[in-house]
Amino acid sequence: IEFIHSLKIIHRDLKLENFFVDENENISLGDFGVAKQQLEGASVGTMVGSYHTIAPEIISALPQSTKSDIWSLGCVFYLLMTGQHPFKAKNWLQLSKDICKCLYEPPNTEPKIDLLIKNMLQLTPTDRFSAKQVVLQLQSIIFPEEPTSDFVEPIKLDKITKLQKLCDSIDQTKQISAEDVKFFHKMSFGAFNRWDSMQLYYLGKVLGKIGFIQLGLAILHFLGFQTDQFLYFATGFTVYCNFEPIRAFS
């Protein structure tokens, strides 16, 4: 959407049914049958759009712009987050009145998402977010900034090799070098919730092998692993620890 808007193209019929997902879960935008290019000083033309996502300026026969798409996209976001349309009157007359007065119930989801939808469903087109602003806001929601004082670059997938080698190198006396301690210290402030299953498995295996039981449980508790992440971690952890991690964790 940001790309077509950069070309001054208005889709004019953004709705959930026009987003397509392939077998690899890639999302594509389709149905450009009523799309128009917004030329300088020219009218886009006829009233088009879908019942629940049409922008108020289109109903009022005012000039359309890329911001009309942003309104429609805000309606799609609202539907995805709540399962309902923001404007859901059963007859066109009442629906058009609600849209033109911007009368809808707040979605009451996450505060940042509610604010994003609010900025997309502004009655005045110039007050709405642009597509680029929507992208930036979504990125800030999905990937929130880490505190600068504690931030450490997330460990990349190829670090699993180092974890595996480290696990194999630790002998049965549970000795660990100063360099390895530094490595674990760095990892303890990393974004564990972004690790894949094998990274979690080997991390648990290494911590279990060197006897870092308390550290392992602290990681699980403070970083709030999901159930599947916990199981991968615990599988590796119990390889070298004679206790039941789920009972100890509880």
Describe the structure.
One of its GO terms (molecular function) is protein serine/threonine kinase activity. Residues 1-142 form the Protein kinase domain. Keywords: ATP-binding, Kinase, Nucleotide-binding, Serine/threonine-protein kinase, Transferase. With 250 residues, this protein is mainly α. The chain has two domains: 2-142, Transferase(Phosphotransferase), domain 1 (Orthogonal Bundle), CATH 1.10.510; 159-249, no CATH class. It is 47% helix and 4% strand. It has twelve helices and four strands. The strands form two sheets. It has a two-stranded antiparallel sheet with strand order 1-4. A two-stranded antiparallel sheet has the order 2-3. Helix 3 runs antiparallel to helix 5 and helix 7 (159-169) packs parallel to helix 9. It is globular and about 65 Å long. The relative contact order is 0.08. Residues 147-157, 187-194 and 238-250 have low confidence and may be disordered.
- Overall geometry: globular
- Write down the domain tally: 2
Order of helices and strands: HEEEEHHHHHHHHHHH
What's the level 1 CATH class of the largest domain? Mainly Alpha
The DSSP helix count reads 12
Q: What share of residues are in beta strands?
A: under 5%
CATH superfamily of the largest domain: Transferase(Phosphotransferase) domain 1
Low-confidence stretches: 147-157, 187-194, 238-250
The largest pleated sheet is described as:
2 strands, antiparallel
User: First CA to last CA: what distance?
Assistant: 47 Å
Question: Average pLDDT, to the nearest integer?
Answer: 72
Q: At CATH's second level, what is the architecture of the largest domain?
A: Orthogonal Bundle
Instruction: Tell me the number of strands.
Output: 4
Which range best describes the helical content: under 10%, 10-25%, 25-40%, 40-55%, 55-70% or over 70%?
A: 40-55%
Structural class: mainly alpha
* Backbone CA Rg: 26 Å
Physical arrangement of strands within the biggest beta sheet: 1-4
Multimerization status: single chain
Per CATH, what is the topology of the largest domain?
Answer: Transferase(Phosphotransferase), domain 1
